[in-house]
Specification:
Elements: H1 4-17, E1 21-22, H2 23-30, H3 34-46, E2 51-54, E3 60-63, H4 76-91, H5 98-111, H6 114-126, E4 127-129, H7 142-154, E5 156-163, E6 169-182, E7 185-192, E8 197-202, E9 206-215, H8 226-235, E10 241-247, H9 251-258, E11 263-268, E12 271-278, H10 282-289, E13 295-299, H11 301-316
Parallel strand pairs: 4-6
Antiparallel strand pairs: 1-3, 2-3, 5-6, 5-9, 6-7, 7-8, 10-12, 10-13, 11-12
Helix pairs in contact: 1-3, 4-5, 4-6, 6-7
């Protein structure tokens, strides 16, 4: 049987992983009697954790919401995920939380074990914020993400398997440069030693990263920064729709509303030209709808038909 302090922390961790635990099952997981479990629950309550008990044959315990936030127990992967999430919030566009996110991130990293702090610091140092959000994409494996970040930070050659959009799988040997979080996806910008050119790789398509152990002298990136390199590559991808619209509003006003997802060119003081590339017309239609300004569709003709259909549906509503 573990000592009391260790067992109490284990109990807290279990209570945080499930909404409700039957008493007998919880005692079995801890390797103690039901009576000892009750004493451990009482210790948590004395420390300020609001543990609720349900009596009876099927009685059990659950951690309720309290008036104050008590200390949390998290594992290694959760700690790294928390730090990465706080980093994203600190760099994000949600007003009012950036400063507090930085404070919490500093506290979390400060108390982390050295092995975890090294991973988080590598992610923080080797990630370039891109400044806009698109539709949610596939998530990157935390282990892959941290391994790539460490290779970027240490200028260490990296080998991995990569699956292209058409499903073709290849082995890559690269000089990793930076990680970029763009459109809710992670990208690795690296110099491909096989193809002798710069490439960007989606991290969610990257598996089995392995540092080769050898270091390299960083090359000069052919772009202002890694985020710009990824953006330019995405802009050059073939997409079904290229939207072009004239908007009866100043360019500065339009940029403020949809500039993160489009190219806005000033025509004169009261008009601008907007270009959007998209896989479907749904997003451009919604973007134009939030402008609160008149506009004239130049291309494609299908967008006019979609706007008419949406308008008729809204009118019927």
């Amino acid at each position: 049987m573990a000592n009391t302090s260790t067992r109490t922390l284990r109990l807290l961790s279990l209570l945080q992983t499930h909404r409700y635990w039957p008493g007998t099952q919880l005692a079995e997981r801890l390797g103690v009697s039901v009576r000892t479990l009750r004493r451990d629950v009482d210790r948590l309550r004395q420390l300020g954790y609001p543990v609720e008990a349900q009596r009876g044959v099927d009685g059990g315990y659950q951690l309720a919401a309290g008036a104050a936030l008590p200390p949390l127990v998290i594992d290694d992967e959760e700690a790294v995920a928390l730090a990465v999430g706080l980093q994203a919030a600190a760099q994000g566009a949600v007003e009012g939380i950036a400063e507090s996110s930085v404070r919490v991130l500093a506290k979390v990293v400060q108390v982390m074990p050295a092995r975890l702090r090294r991973q988080v610091e590598a992610l923080r140092a080797m990630t370039v914020p891109a400044g806009w959000n698109g539709p949610a994409g596939a998530g990157a494996d935390p282990g892959v993400l941290t391994a790539v970040a460490l290779a970027c930070r240490d200028s260490e050659h990296l080998r991995f398997s990569y699956t292209a959009a058409d499903g073709r799988r290849t082995d890559r040997h690269v000089e990793p440069h930076r990680l970029v979080c763009l459109g809710r996806r992670w990208y690795l910008v690296a110099y491909d030693l096989t193809r002798h050119d710069w490439r960007s790789f989606r991290v969610d398509r990257l598996t089995a990263p392995n540092g080769a152990g050898s270091r390299f002298r960083p090359r000069e990136l052919p772009a202002a920064d890694a985020a710009e390199f990824v953006r330019s590559g995405l802009d050059n991808l073939p997409r079904p729709y290229r939207v072009e619209v004239l908007v009866d509003a100043p360019a500065a006003t339009v940029r403020e509303r949809i500039g993160r997802w489009s190219t806005v060119e000033e025509v004169d003081a009261e008009h601008c030209r907007v270009r959007i590339t998209a896989d479907s017309l749904d997003w451009p239609t919604m973007a134009l709808g939030v402008l609160d300004a008149d506009f004239h569709v130049l291309d494609p003709p299908e967008l006019l038909e979609q706007i008419h259909n949406w308008g008729a549906r809204f009118t019927r509503a």
